[in-house]
Amino acid sequence: MAGGIVQNDVIKNPSPQLQAFLRWTDAMTVKRDPVALADSVTDDLAYQTLPASMGFPPRDKAGFLQFSSLTFMAMLEDFWSEIHEVVETADTIAVHASGKATSITGAPYANEYTVIAHVAKQANGEYKISAMKEFLDSKVLLEFMAAEKQRQEERAKAAA
């Protein structure tokens, strides 16, 4: 299983704030590691998948970790992220990126997204994500999730 974050000039020499976002991205997409993901965010994390019309509720840290582990990280492998643009302030990172992966049933996945991540400096000097709004290509995501669920159900029936 491969995957990674495409190295380009946009993320060359990242600030400590951008490093926090890159740790989150690596834990979520490449490592698919709930422990590393939990360590990349603050205990009071506020997370929202947008646009709101997709119907995903706001999530706290526990809800975000559960959702990520049981759906996204369990559904996709071989994930590649490419960050196209970063805009940052002392406590906010805005990222335009795209990602490609393969589902566990072998279907290709590709999405484009914009993330607004608020970061908080911790006592040890490291930054962690404290709030995030993730804007996704809703059409792609919802159609993919429905089709992947159907592929998984068909695979389970065939195995039974």
Give your account of this protein's structure.
- InterPro entries: NTF2-like_dom_sf (IPR032710).
- This is SnoaL-like domain-containing protein.
- With 160 residues, the protein is an alpha/beta fold.
- The chain has one domain (4-159): Nuclear Transport Factor 2, Chain: A, CATH 3.10.450.
- It contains four helices and seven strands, in the order βααββαββββα.
- Strands 1-4-5-6-7-2-3 form a seven-stranded mixed beta sheet.
- The longest helix has 22 residues, at 138-159.
- The two termini are 27 Å apart.
Write the layout of secondary structure elements.
Blueprint: E1 4-5, H1 16-30, H2 34-39, E2 41-50, E3 59-60, H3 61-75, E4 76-88, E5 92-103, E6 108-121, E7 127-136, H4 138-159
What is the top-level CATH class?
Answer: Alpha Beta
Q: Would you list the SSEs in sequence order as H and E?
A: EHHEEHEEEEH
Number of E strands: 7
Shape: globular
> What number of domains?
1
Number of helices: 4
State the CATH topology: Nuclear Transport Factor 2, Chain: A
Distance between the termini: 27 Å
Estimated share of beta-strand residues: 35-45%
The strand line-up of the biggest sheet is 1-4-5-6-7-2-3
Based on the coordinates given, report the CATH architecture: Roll
